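Tutorial handout. Part one gives the primary structure; part two gives the three-dimensional structure as tokens.
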Amino acid sequence: MWVSLTNHSGYSVLSSTATIEDLVQFAVQEKMHALALTDTCNLFGAIDFYKECKKKGIKPLIGMEVMIASTSRFDKKRGPEVFATPCYFIVKNHQGYQNLCALSSAGYIEGFYYTPRIDKELIQKHHEGLICIIGSYSSYLADLALKEDDTLFYQELDWFTSLFKEDLYLQVERHRMDSRDLVSLGFDKEQWLLQLHNEMADKQESLIRKYKEVQKKTGVRIVATNNVQFMQKKDYKAQEILMNIQSAETIEILERDASGVVRRRYPNPKRRVLPSAEYYFKTPEQMQTLFSDLPDAIQATCDLAESVEMAIDFDTRYYPVFVPKELEGTEYTDAERAKAAELYLANLCQKGVQNRYTPERLAEVQKVYPGQDPMKVVNERLNYELSIITSKGMCDYLLIVYDFIHWAKNQGIPMGPGRGSGAGSIILYLTGITDIEPLRFHLFFERFINPERLSYPDIDVDICMDRRQEVIDYTIQKYGKDRVAQIITFGTMKAKMAVKDVGRVLSVALSKVNLIAKLIPDDLQITLKKALELEPQLRELCENDPEVGKILEMAQALEGSIRNTGIHAAGMIISAKPLVEAIPVCIAKDSDMLVTQYAMKPVEAVGMLKIDFLGLKTLTSIQKACDSVRAIHNVHIDWVNLPLNDKATFDLLNQGKTSGIFQLESQGMQDLARQLHIDKFEEIIAVGALYRPGPMEMIPSFIQRKHGKEAIEFDHPAMANILQETYGIMVYQEQVMQIASKLAGYSLGEGDVLRRAMGKKDAQEMARQRDKFRAGALKNAIPEAQSMGIFDKVEKFASYGFNKSHAAAYGFLSYVTAYLKANYPGHWMAALMTCDMADISKVAKHSAECKTMGISVLSPSINESEQYFTPTSEGIRFALGGIKGIGEGVVQTIIETRRAEGKFKNLADFVQKIDVKKIGKKTIETLIEAGCFDQFSTSRRALLGQMGDLFDASVRVQKEKTKGYISFFNDEEEKVAAVEEQDPPLERLFKERELLGFYLTGHPLQLYQEMISKIDACTVDHLLHVEQSDVFIVPFVVEDMEFRLSQKTQKKFAVLKASDQTATMELLAWSDLIDSKGHLLKENALLIALVDVEKKLNEQRVMLKELFPFEGSDPLEILQLKDKYRSSQKMFLQKRAQQESRGSAMKTKDEKLEPTLKIGLKEALMGHQAVISLKKIFNSHPGKSPIQIEIGPSILRIDASLGVKISSELLQILENLNYVEKVSKES
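Part two.
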């Protein structure tokens, strides 16, 4: 049976539409016993292909189509003698695999010229263990074979034969199409294409005749191949489009008249195209029929496959070793070096014990282990960990990580306190790899390294974003450029990208392509098939417009194809040996650093050490804030060793002021912090673990239990110590391990195995674990019914339990950022804005937070602003680098000029002094529009009017360097209009938001205050702090808008970024409102809305119910909206009263001990301002007494978080309000 030996997958990027899965599945379907993968010049998919074949019972043949340089691989110039010709290599054994890796790597590293190329020198060096297939119809060898004088052909053949001997094959192909296919595919309408096909088919037949002669003469066998590029014949057109996405050519050329109307279309002869549709994956029967005259060529494929004996080695590790300094420059055995490394690690740890375990820290350990000597606890834990690590041979790994972290800290590079399970290791803490003391927080080493398992742990490292490259450079210098690499990634065509690519290749009008793309929901997981099901307009376009239908048909065929390669954001490989000796590599586009050809999972699978060097912006922000404090106040902040009991920090958290705080800045987190009233660091850890899908439903109980409003119960007394810190609720994965250990006698390592099994939902393993847990519990006198009930609860929790070690490490960063915000607010906010400078939407968010904190954000100033945001005594000065469109080079030029020439006196002085070769007219316009010259004029429009002449004169003067330079700028004053034309307010404000990210000098709604005052409207800030679900009227400006797809209803909805003078927030618009009022939803629209605020599980959602445009709305429409608001509010209050009435019956007896404040309100006099006034009064009299409000027939019980202290003063204040009908205090 025929074996397909030349197959290309999507890893031949933008050259094949076939996937590995499709290729292997077809081979299984056709009962092929072996299959090859021969992607062009790379081994990107080799490991995935190997594993997929093994999984499906197919023998994998790993190969590659190589391009051989006609001269040397180092010749990189155009010319008739410099070209590349294809041939195929297939791995025969492990040596062949290593050689193919070396050849592929060299093609990228040394031979890349338009494409990776190798040469004969490399083949001679790396030929062993490879099978070679030569002579395809497009090769140079084929051209030589068909020459009348075939001497050169035989010389080439002899060279290959001398290397590969019986493992050399001559390739024969047949891709001739019948006349029906030629007509159906349009070949008959393109003479050049028909000629290309005929020449190819004739040449293939000529080669078959020639190679048959050669086989008889030399014994080199011929082998029948098909050069698979796509799966089915119908995929030919999609394949053509894919190839031209790569070439950036179009299928057709459009001829337009003078007005731009398309008058004629004709095929583009420059496009890339295969000369036949026969490059699809044929069945063995088809190939046997096609080559019925060459049965030996079919048999040769089987014989070739049979000769392959190769297995990928997934057991060997290529981890580097650590050489202690005392051994450097000396001779030593592996055993001596390993022993020295163990001793080195032990000594480091002993030094760490002395340095890190201060009396204060030992006291904290004692609290966790009462009655024990804390130093003994430390040493026992250390010795235990060392015994596990040395027995598993992991000392080198830990010391390698220690080395670069130690170097980075010595260079002053901020490093994270820990990430993942590593914070559970005392060794990592003592060596400075992490900064979280594990004993105090009851973190487990077994969560990091499980003694019951063989796998290596991951140590992921957070590094200051700005200085990450320095750490990478040190690692390269330490281990060698040839042993350190980044990891490749593969970008695939998503739905919208596929549509845009196909539309461009098909020469479809950009407006139509954009229309199609906009109708596809903004969801990363969306497919075109799903989009057509969900979006009626898209479906209608597809059905009624043939051009759209064709785009979508072709886009669906290409959707998911690999479009490009990239580099993993964090992953780095460090190898014990040169990487090219173990895996294939390539080169990064913008540097000479090596990049693995295997993606992350395959590269780890073949034994490479991966360490994530993660750039964390929070660390950069922390460092910038600390540097700023030191520069201005001469205060050194040792943030790694901050005390964890700072009152100002906890006060800030408990007020919900967590915007800009690591992990805690969402609105839901703000509400959670406020309701929980965090008073210890351990609760920050818990909050980070709880606030996720799954455990989030436990948050209300967590809060109630902390405040003593819900009983804390344990399923067994032995669980009390384990769950006490989380109020009886399972939050952490480590608690699963502890419960298994305490109740069922598991070791902590076995408990980790149980945790993993529960998370993976492995039915067989879970059955074994259930029996083990039952048996262990019975030994501890726990009845089966009770133990199985606990097991079931633990199993349910385990699927979403969180890693406490990681939560502790990241919780510490939350604490540090909260500390800086609480104690050095201006410095922290300036640091945040600087680090987010590239994203003006984030700068806008931080600016809004500054406003709530009472910190002014000062306009950018050409004389005062620096490159970054800077804290001053007056506020935070906006950064020149934070202005959209102003690059670093421009900023440096301005600052250097200002430093050399002094402050600028006016616009003319600026234009005179600045180098106009470095700063152009458009850039100066941007600076003016951003407000940088406001100190010189109140009218930006007037400045823009002057700037053109000033700039042109400066260009002329600087260019000619004549005396006119002095005359123009020193003898003439800046010409200012007698009456400056004032800027149109909206134009000025919208331009500010475009360039700065937010409205700095005002807000568009300020122009409509009179209208706003008539509609009983509330502010955005008020909506953000609403305590209960309710309905409101709010005016706002649409700053941004994004359409998304509801996972629940599969309908489109919109998320609006809305603002007024007080704040910015997200509003949701559901599909029915989009259908009726979607025309109003656009950027910069000024709108009035009826909104429904929904509070649920500590999350707030604000949903649009009705919309009115600001411009053009008459008072009657506003009044109708107001009436609808009041009606909706009344219905809501009645519904709320019923809910609260039912809920109040379930309150505990302790709560009823507090007297209730009952207030009767006059319905006719109640309005929005009255509600605000009441809330302020309640806030000024905080306490525990619940509040009950009666409005007409409705009874509203206010949320307990807004309780009051009832006093005669409070009662008097309430009685004096004209809208209060009665006030009473009832027990």
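Part three, for discussion. Residues 295 and 895 are 79 Å apart (CA to CA). The two ends are 92 Å apart (CA to CA).
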